[in-house]
Amino acid sequence: MDLETLRHSTSHIMAAAVKELYPSAKLGIGPAIESGFYYDFDIPDISLTDEDIIKIEDRMREIIKRDERFQRKEIPKSEAVKLFEGMGEKYKVELIKEIPDEKVSTYETGKFIDLCRGPHVESSGNIKAFKLLTVAGAYWRGAETNPMLQRIYGTAFETEEDLKNHITKLEEAIKRDHRKLGRELDLFNIYHDEAGAGLVYYHPRGARLRILLEDFLRKEHLKRGYEFVITPHIAKGHLWNTSGHSSYYRENMYYFEIDEQEYVLKPMNCPGHILIYQSKLHSYRELPIRFFELGNVYRYERSGVLHGLLRVRGFTQDDAHIFCTQEQLNKEIADVLDFAFEMLKIFGFDYEVDLSTRPEKFSGTEENWKHATDALTSALNSKGIKFNIDEGAGVFYGPKIDIKMKDALGRPWQGPTVQVDFNLPERFDLSYIADDGSKKRPVMVHRVVLGSMERFIGALIEHYGGAFPLWIAPTQVIILPIADRHINYAEEIKKIMVENDIRVEVDGRREKINLKIREAQLQKIPYMFIVGDKEEQGKKIAVRARKEGDLGCMDIKAVLDKLKIEIDNKTII
């Protein structure tokens, strides 16, 4: 059985149950989604609770037991308007009026009628395993000026075993939620009321993690021949007119005035890198030129879609732009793919690949788009990489390869992207001097290998469940003196560790050692050094690892050697 059809049908059964329990409820939309389904409801004077969800589930089981058939009907659009107006379903009427066809389809299940294209299962009795999950607020059609509806999320599977496995995975995902762990591990916060939604404040441990990742990225880019650049956070509006962002991306940009001139908080780094390229004449001998920047960008997102580190309004990209000849293009794409896959391997991510093609609204010629798409396709094929076609999901100036990172739970996360662009070099009239002395147009490759640093850190937190590998752990070691008299020895060890580039803290609180150990374990710190009389007298350390537990007493050099091997190997545990 097709899961999408099963889930879509289950959303209808849920809506039927809601209508039976709350006759005044008005229906929004109820599609199947990747991991289940949802339905939006406008229920006057009632805020759904966990108890209500249980009631709705029970009523759904009754409807399923009735084994009511899904019956499809096609009716004239005018008749459909009258039908749903008569039922008081104003949201459905709004949708019907926007349908261009003369006829629309409805589905009936028992006494329940819904506007729907289908398809559906044969009858409600075909639904065997389902679960309602959460209730959330959702603006009608996603617009903040529209009424706030109540959205019930659920999921359905063919068997109870599949459902049970999915619920187990969801429970694990809740434990790994980066927003929850971000608070518990004191990594970051978003001060919605005080500073604004979608703006991330990194606390010391979170900042340490980010700096570690950024330093690692800088070294890896230097190895591969990238030049570092830094561009301002703002630029005049006309720059974005030239680039095309004002025409294709304006609703996501922040505009303001300085000295009666229009300025923009940069949503992307590419125009700044283009200005640097344009600042002097380039010979073919200099190409490819690779500019890299950990660039801060700002994009407007509706408050309803903001989500922890994954969807924010201000973020940093590990952004690079490569200016090359057409002859160099395939190799540059291939090298970027190798770079991206190597990074994902280091962090322990599996991946899947999409090729995103020309959107409905695009810049440039169809010929250039075809050339760019062919170049990306050729690079993927030459490496034997399997990929899916994501029709119409390219950016306005070019097609792109999207690499989705798959975490420990198999969930995809937006990660590396590679975009080929013939359009911005045209718009900015970029050139280089060819070997025959003529001016030629370079090709531009836009790429990120981790993506948004915020989103990548969010993905890392959930991938590792907050238990970071030693090499990127914000705190690698915590020293736990058993009593006050052992604090001086703890500080001696700390000094040695710091001198050897180990990130270390001392817990000098007057608490029982078992409490300190338990709290260090909850903080997911890779190693605990426990020091008391015996350790101080023998100049040793009692070592406890996050995963393996007690490793016994070791001398300081042996401990350092162990840590350095694990760090150098970037061991993932």
Automatic annotation (TrEMBL):
<keyword id="KW-0547">Nucleotide-binding</keyword>
<dbReference type="GO" id="GO:0005737">
    <property type="term" value="C:cytoplasm"/>
</dbReference>
<keyword id="KW-0479">Metal-binding</keyword>
<keyword id="KW-0648">Protein biosynthesis</keyword>
<keyword id="KW-0030">Aminoacyl-tRNA synthetase</keyword>
<dbReference type="InterPro" id="IPR036621">
    <property type="entry name" value="Anticodon-bd_dom_sf"/>
</dbReference>
<feature type="binding site">
    <location>
        <position position="321"/>
    </location>
    <ligand>
        <name>Zn(2+)</name>
    </ligand>
</feature>
<comment type="similarity">
    <text>Belongs to the class-II aminoacyl-tRNA synthetase family.</text>
</comment>
<protein>
    <recommendedName>
        <fullName>Threonine--tRNA ligase</fullName>
        <ecNumber>6.1.1.3</ecNumber>
    </recommendedName>
</protein>
<dbReference type="InterPro" id="IPR018163">
    <property type="entry name" value="Thr/Ala-tRNA-synth_IIc_edit"/>
</dbReference>
<keyword id="KW-0963">Cytoplasm</keyword>
<dbReference type="InterPro" id="IPR033728">
    <property type="entry name" value="ThrRS_core"/>
</dbReference>
<keyword id="KW-0820">tRNA-binding</keyword>
<dbReference type="GO" id="GO:0005524">
    <property type="term" value="F:ATP binding"/>
</dbReference>
<dbReference type="GO" id="GO:0006435">
    <property type="term" value="P:threonyl-tRNA aminoacylation"/>
</dbReference>
<keyword id="KW-0436">Ligase</keyword>
<dbReference type="GO" id="GO:0046872">
    <property type="term" value="F:metal ion binding"/>
</dbReference>
<dbReference type="GO" id="GO:0000049">
    <property type="term" value="F:tRNA binding"/>
</dbReference>
<dbReference type="InterPro" id="IPR012947">
    <property type="entry name" value="tRNA_SAD"/>
</dbReference>
<dbReference type="InterPro" id="IPR002314">
    <property type="entry name" value="aa-tRNA-synt_IIb"/>
</dbReference>
<dbReference type="GO" id="GO:0004829">
    <property type="term" value="F:threonine-tRNA ligase activity"/>
</dbReference>
<keyword id="KW-0067">ATP-binding</keyword>
<dbReference type="Pfam" id="PF03129">
    <property type="entry name" value="HGTP_anticodon"/>
</dbReference>
<feature type="binding site">
    <location>
        <position position="270"/>
    </location>
    <ligand>
        <name>Zn(2+)</name>
    </ligand>
</feature>
<comment type="subunit">
    <text>Homodimer.</text>
</comment>
<feature type="domain" description="Aminoacyl-transfer RNA synthetases class-II family profile">
    <location>
        <begin position="177"/>
        <end position="469"/>
    </location>
</feature>
<dbReference type="InterPro" id="IPR006195">
    <property type="entry name" value="aa-tRNA-synth_II"/>
</dbReference>
<dbReference type="InterPro" id="IPR004154">
    <property type="entry name" value="Anticodon-bd"/>
</dbReference>
<keyword id="KW-0862">Zinc</keyword>
<dbReference type="InterPro" id="IPR002320">
    <property type="entry name" value="Thr-tRNA-ligase_IIa"/>
</dbReference>
<feature type="binding site">
    <location>
        <position position="446"/>
    </location>
    <ligand>
        <name>Zn(2+)</name>
    </ligand>
</feature>
<dbReference type="Pfam" id="PF00587">
    <property type="entry name" value="tRNA-synt_2b"/>
</dbReference>
<dbReference type="InterPro" id="IPR045864">
    <property type="entry name" value="aa-tRNA-synth_II/BPL/LPL"/>
</dbReference>
<keyword id="KW-0694">RNA-binding</keyword>
<dbReference type="InterPro" id="IPR047246">
    <property type="entry name" value="ThrRS_anticodon"/>
</dbReference>
<dbReference type="Pfam" id="PF07973">
    <property type="entry name" value="tRNA_SAD"/>
</dbReference>
